[in-house]
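Worked example

This section walks through a single chain of length 128. The input is the sequence exactly as stored; nothing has been trimmed or padded.
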Amino acid sequence: QLQLVESGGGLVQPGGSLRLSCAASGFTLDYYAIGWFRQAPGKEREGVSCIDRSDGTTYYADSVKGRFTISRDNAKNTMYLQMNSLKPEDTAVYYCAAVERITTVQAMCVLRNGMDYWGKGTLVTVSS
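Given that input, the structure is written out below as C-alpha cells.
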C-alpha cells in the first residue's frame, strides 16, 4: 500500500516541543523531495518546511524559521519535523508530503500542489 502516515501530534503548552514523524510505505523516500504542511482552522494549507532529495537543500516558512527542523532517515524510510518553542498560532493539522520531481524546494512549499503522496494529517494543539 502506497502511503504516508504521520504520528506524534498532540497537546502541548506554549514554549514546548514536539517531534512529528512520517513513515512511508510502498515506496522509498530517498527518491523524493519531502515536506511538511499545515492547515489551521479557517485558513488555507501552508508549506512549513521542505527538503530536497539530493543535496539536502531546505526551505522554512518565515513563521517557523529558527524553531522547526526538517530531517529524514532513509534507513527507516521516515521523515521528521522537530518543533521547538511552540506558539498557539502553530496549532493546526500537520501533513507530510512527497514528490519525485520539483523545481526548487521553495516552490514545493509555497505552491503546495503536484504532490505524489499526502499523509492524512496529525493534529497539533498548542494551548495552556
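What to look for: The first helix runs from residue 105 to 111.
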